[in-house]
Amino acid sequence: MSISPYFQQLRSGYQAELDDLTSDSEGKHVLRKRLAEKRKEIGFLVQMMESSPEMVAVVLHQAFKFTKPAVMEHLLTLDSDDLLSWDALQDAVQIAPASQGVVDTITAEPLGEWFMVVASALEYMHNRPARADERVHSDDEDLDGEEDRDEVREHRHDDNHTEDHDEEEQEARAREDAGNDWLVDQGFDRKD
Known about the structure:
Blueprint: H1 5-22, H2 31-40, H3 42-45, H4 53-56, E1 64-66, H5 69-76, H6 86-89, E2 93-95, H7 100-107, H8 112-127, H9 132-141, H10 146-157, H11 165-185
Antiparallel strand pairs: 1-2
């Protein structure tokens, strides 16, 4: 499966927005508090749904349960002009009861249902581990050293080899740790 350029672009912005909300300047984990504050601002944030959906979508972080992953996987392959309707996703996505008020506010807007489709796709991507072919694409864009290039070449030769879920999570954690180490080297506080 190949994620469309539209969702690839939005995914990095969504992740950056969540990262910004996760900890304060002292390194304390404050995601829950900041998300609650953002959800209270939904009346204002709906104005940004079309221009910056990835920034507004964080109000729905952890609001979805995905009951039909195949539908979501298909959605991620679509470009912005070809997205499924919110009605078409109703069987594939369940809304957490605590988030229903925010969803009602969003869907009352002219672009609300379109936004719900985009937000659910962003949250689905956030929760699923990157697959080997996606990691190779991502690694190609961010190569810093020869060791990384060798690892990418190794992945390309093993394209047909499927890694199990645990290995993917370990690799994701290793990449996150390496990123955190780099940030510490640049003078930032360690993110826990």
